[in-house]
């Protein structure tokens, strides 16, 4: 059975969600593809259909966080007409998020 792009996106997101939990529990270094596969309810070999490595999954998680941060900042900036106010809003909208991301990923990398 062939998957369409939407089904593939759902599976990739399920893997990312599972990996986020595994990285949070074990840290990046100690987490394995076996751990991620088990958490996602997939065979390890099927993970490699969607991601070439553990690093690729981690990069997808970081990219997702950064995309969310940029979207939040753009939304906040769009509420202002003055260019200076827009710039301030863009910069400061993500201030709390950066701390959260830093703490979360710092814990994941160090653990």
Please, what is the CATH homologous superfamily? Tetracycline Repressor, domain 2
Structural class: mainly alpha
The DSSP helix count reads 6
* Total domain count: 1
Description:
The protein is mainly α and 111 residues long. The protein has one domain (5-110): Tetracycline Repressor, domain 2. Helix content is 79%, strand content 0%. It is built from six helices and no strands. Helix 1 (5-26) packs across helix 4. The longest helix is centred in the middle third of the chain and has 24 residues, at 54-77. It is elongated. The protein starts with a helix and ends with a helix. The model has no long low-confidence stretch (mean pLDDT 88).
Short description:
This protein is mainly α.
Write the layout of secondary structure elements.
Elements: H1 5-26, H2 33-40, H3 44-50, H4 54-77, H5 83-93, H6 95-110
Helix pairs in contact: 1-2, 1-4, 1-6, 4-5
Main attributes of the structure:
111 residues; mainly alpha; Tetracycline Repressor, domain 2; 6 helices
